[in-house]
Amino acid sequence: MVLVDVAVPAGVRPGELLEFEFNGALLSATVPEGLSEGASFVVEVATAAGGPEVVREPAPGEVEQQLQHYVDERAASGGLMDKFVAWVERENIEAAYEAFIAAHAAEMRGNGGVAGEQSHEWWPLYQAYQEEFEGLLQKFLVEAGCTEEEFVEAAQGASGMNEIYLRIFLAQTEYELFVEMMSQASSGGSG
């Protein structure tokens, strides 16, 4: 048996069948719930006389459980950035971004994104967005029992998954990304 990483291509949603190539053979697997474009999951492939075949796909919720287990183990290490990653997952910070965008997207309807004309009326909304997420970060600092300076120091040394989570968290607060997410949501696209 061989474990094969399968990436979710654009346009394929959870529950849908996707095809992938393995050793020259075209195989298929169902995208697990909770995954989106660019994410990956592992399937077991066996090679038999008739060629390779998928023998095991992730069970529903297995991918999320594996990620949560990994994050929990890392957080138990005591590292501040490991705790940050666990906190981001536990508090479902992505849902907080999405909720703000959904609640306020109509205020920027038809804005044309970053390439379009910018309105000074958007600035207070962006400031409210930033304040909400600065509040979330403050909540983490209190829970972790650390200062902003300690967090910044730990963040500067972040690597691997910790660095990825940190970059995603910080990128969400950039004005250009904010305008793009609001533009997509206000035009009915995914935010």
TrEMBL record:
Entries under Gene3D superfamilies matching the protein: ADP-ribosylation factor-like 2-binding protein, domain (1.20.1520.10)
Protein name: BART domain-containing protein
UniProt keywords, alphabetically: Cell projection, Cilium, Cytoplasm
Location in or out of the cell: Cell projection, Cilium; Cytoplasm
Pfam families referenced in this protein's UniProt entry, alphabetically: ARL2_Bind_BART (PF11527)
Broad class of where this protein is predominantly found: other
One GO CC term, this protein: cilium
